[in-house]
Amino acid sequence: MREAADRQGCPPSMREIGQAVHLSSNSSVAHQLTALESKDASGPGGRQERGAGRRTARRSGAGR
What we know:
By secondary structure, the chain is an all-alpha fold. It has a domain at about 1-40. It has helices spanning about 1-10, 15-20, 25-40. The model has no long low-confidence stretch (mean pLDDT about 75).
């Protein structure tokens, strides 16, 4: 995720993360991210959102 953020200038979307790790459901991606955050594996940059500034567990990916 950090590499994508460095490359694109913003963190990857839920859909992009799902594609990278072969998860088809945004819900599955959100669940895995929540598990990582609870273990603090995502690090300090893991809370930066693409766009508005606050990361939420649920993102529809609409408009892409």
